[in-house]
Amino acid sequence: MRFRLLGPLQVFDGTAWVTVGAAKVRLLLATLLVRANQTVPTETIVDELWGETPPKTATTQVHGYVLRLRRLLGEDVLTTVAPGYRLVVGAEDTDAQRFELLADQGHAAHRDSRPESSAEHLAEALALWRGPAFGDVPASATVTAEAERLTEKRLTALDTRVAADLDRGRHTTLIGELRRHVEEHPLRERAWAHLMLAQFRSGRQAEALGSYQRVRQVLVDELGVEPGADLRDLHRRILADDPTLALDVAPPAVVVPPICQLPADVPDFTGRQAQLDAIAAALADRYPTAPPPVWVISGGPGIGKSTLALHAARRAAPDFPDGQLYLDLTGTSPEPRAPAVLLAEVLHALGVTGAAVPDGLHARAALYRSLVTDRRMLLVLDDAASAEQVGWLQPPTGSCAAIVTSRSVLTDLPGARHTELDVLDHGEALDLFTRIVGAGRVEREPDDAAAILRACGHLPLAIRIAAGKLLGRPAWSLRVLRERLEDESRRLSELRLGELGVRASFDLSVRLLDEESLRALRLFGTLGPWTVPGWVLDPLLDRPADELLDTLVDANLARLVTTDASGQPRYRLHDLLRAYAAEGAEAIPLAERRDAVTRLLATWLDLTTRAADALPPSLFRPPPGTAPRRAAPAGVARRAEADPVTWFAAERVALLDGVRLAAEWGLAELAWELATVAVPYYDHHSRYEDWQHGHQTALAAVRRAGDRLGEAVLLRGLAQVQIYRDDFTPATANMERSAELFREVGDKLGEGLATAGLGTIHRVLDQHEQALDRAKQALELVTAAGDRHTEAQLMSAIGAMYQARDEVEQARHWFTEALTLSRHLGDAHREAVVLREMCALHEPGIALTNLRRAEDIFASLGDDRCVAYTLMKSGEIHLGRDDRARAVPDLEQAAEIFSRHGSRMDEARCWELLGDLDRARTLWRSVAGPGSG
């Protein structure tokens, strides 16, 4: 055991249990423990530690707290995984894990009528508690919720342990403990029932009746309700001195002929182990006096809901000796079966036939409940249309249980637990495919098998159809089917076998949609195979579409995949369903579809521009074009402006798909503006692949449209990526062509920036005279264009060139001019850059003061990468003064930031300065590629 959280938070350091000093660090550790083995984004950690009012330096503070924890736990336990951190926790590394394992064993022993074993396991589990869970951790939403969950499990474990002790005849010794328990938890009726039973069995009938009066008064005073049926029944039996309450008297057994209506199990059932285990545990954890366990399996068409339900029911059947009922509710048919008809079918199975079946719905439901109350029966309710339909069939007590399947998410079914199925993972999909097709064929063509599974989207129904086709065509190679499925336009037609068909399965779900929801689904299908935020439906439909999106999600046609780090829920369509929706979108007139796509892309452009405006100034910010812009929803825009870095990280794939969509629809100006407006983010965070991919996609569109301004901007951007990759020949050609195009369209600022880019190429190639000439030419053009911010940037660049030539006075002059202009403009980011770059001109004390000032500015602007460069410079200065105590923290923090941003060369430089040559060499090799070093 490594962590103790059932009480004050403690960590085992190898020799003793120690507490974590600072409150924020304890809260950070608690947050990571609650989400053990998951990547917790830095933004989420900031929310947990500071709520709605984080300091400007919150991200930097989190890095510091992580370093402190890492020194205690080790780097292999607390790892950095973009976009945050992961705490690696083993199966029994916490006392909470140990408690839950022992408690589960105790509950299972109690269900199996093994009171000695039950009490032993539960007593051992409860002994692990040293106080309230996370007792010394500051409150946060995540930690508080987990503490409450564990506390409820503790109380449930205590209840079951007391029940086991009562079964062992320890009623007299329990009375004192139970009195304290009900004083602490006066609203827990089960605890009062245990106390009353212990008192009655100890010959204290009057005290037991008095306890009932006390709990009744508490419930009436506190909640305005009478005790529940179980407690009232116990009171009645105690009042009547019922002999069956005595320990040695058992009620007469009821013999019921078993019923088994379950269809045959699927012989090649594959995967879903976690869901099976969860359902099995829920069905086993039931009590006759408690509500019945009801488990709802929901998911899209063809996902395998019925197969999972029947397999789980078959596994659980021995625990329901009175029988298993199966009902097809036909929820996806035009007319789902009426509850009265379903109840008549159940009553017939239970032996009530003919005139004995009551006429009314309520009368049938009442008779059904009375017949199954004391029976141990399992119901499988397949293809439910609604919670109302299922509600009439729910068994009345915990001696029974129900498994329900539905294409809708039945969240309004009281007390139900839910599993929403996703597609199979690759291993499960391959296993299912292999079981049907045969291992030999798959082993001969493994790549084709994987491609077929990808074309099926790992959807179980599609895999069964594809495998069934191959099974019936032994002369086919897997490549034949692969090639037939690779054409997305005919894929749905190929995935049909006899009565089975993916398109037919989708039709069942889609015909339940109203016209507007169907239109929403079809327009959704025109987008790419990525997760997108929910607001995209608004511009596509030209109206608020929250309720339509909810309809698609509830019908399991659109899937809510996650909530991203910026707090936006994200959705996608399964690949086959997207193809089905796109096929259906052909019914929408072309002009309407084009207008919908244009509205969406115009909204993306407006939103991306807002987010880019909130980033630090960038030399590579594109000129504004004349593409249409449409205001994004206010809440979405605020989120993007408040934290643009997190927003861009969440949307980068969707933005690139927006560029593709614009290019496909011939919207050239939208394509190049969408591609280039994100460049400041790409630059600050080294996203060169995204930068290049978006620019190349848009470049083909602008050349087809003859858009010279767009081509000029894109070529300059592509050249900058090539500069970063030391690919100077094409960079020079692209930058020269960009300058020429800017000159042709009369854009002096664009021409100046392209000229500055050529200067950069000369400087990197040690052609200092040409570099300086280009920089001064660029300055003249930018000054003529009236862009003072870029003017300050170029002055700083010229200063750096003179500094590289050891012309100190000239360098000082240009840096001073740049600093003065930056401060005059209020351009804090440029001021910080100048302070950092000119530090070599000062003695170490002044240089370090300026670097700290620059670091504070970068931190306040959220520019982590510039923080890292500043820390690296200060670390170098400290090393030059032989002050490792100050150098090491600066260089370690810089290395960690570079690692998160993927800046391997800069990270390697930090480790090299620290003397960690092995780590530096590893990173240099990763930069240089295979065969290096």
Automatic annotation (TrEMBL):
<dbReference type="InterPro" id="IPR001867">
    <property type="entry name" value="OmpR/PhoB-type_DNA-bd"/>
</dbReference>
<dbReference type="InterPro" id="IPR036388">
    <property type="entry name" value="WH-like_DNA-bd_sf"/>
</dbReference>
<dbReference type="InterPro" id="IPR027417">
    <property type="entry name" value="P-loop_NTPase"/>
</dbReference>
<dbReference type="InterPro" id="IPR051677">
    <property type="entry name" value="AfsR-DnrI-RedD_regulator"/>
</dbReference>
<dbReference type="Pfam" id="PF00486">
    <property type="entry name" value="Trans_reg_C"/>
</dbReference>
<comment type="similarity">
    <text>Belongs to the AfsR/DnrI/RedD regulatory family.</text>
</comment>
<dbReference type="InterPro" id="IPR005158">
    <property type="entry name" value="BTAD"/>
</dbReference>
<dbReference type="InterPro" id="IPR002182">
    <property type="entry name" value="NB-ARC"/>
</dbReference>
<keyword id="KW-0802">TPR repeat</keyword>
<protein>
    <submittedName>
        <fullName>Tetratricopeptide repeat protein</fullName>
    </submittedName>
</protein>
<keyword id="KW-0804">Transcription</keyword>
<dbReference type="InterPro" id="IPR003593">
    <property type="entry name" value="AAA+_ATPase"/>
</dbReference>
<dbReference type="InterPro" id="IPR019734">
    <property type="entry name" value="TPR_rpt"/>
</dbReference>
<dbReference type="InterPro" id="IPR011990">
    <property type="entry name" value="TPR-like_helical_dom_sf"/>
</dbReference>
<dbReference type="Pfam" id="PF13424">
    <property type="entry name" value="TPR_12"/>
</dbReference>
<keyword id="KW-0238">DNA-binding</keyword>
<feature type="domain" description="OmpR/PhoB-type">
    <location>
        <begin position="1"/>
        <end position="89"/>
    </location>
</feature>
<dbReference type="Pfam" id="PF03704">
    <property type="entry name" value="BTAD"/>
</dbReference>
<dbReference type="InterPro" id="IPR016032">
    <property type="entry name" value="Sig_transdc_resp-reg_C-effctor"/>
</dbReference>
<dbReference type="Pfam" id="PF00931">
    <property type="entry name" value="NB-ARC"/>
</dbReference>
<feature type="repeat" description="TPR">
    <location>
        <begin position="792"/>
        <end position="825"/>
    </location>
</feature>
<keyword id="KW-0805">Transcription regulation</keyword>
<feature type="DNA-binding region" description="OmpR/PhoB-type">
    <location>
        <begin position="1"/>
        <end position="89"/>
    </location>
</feature>
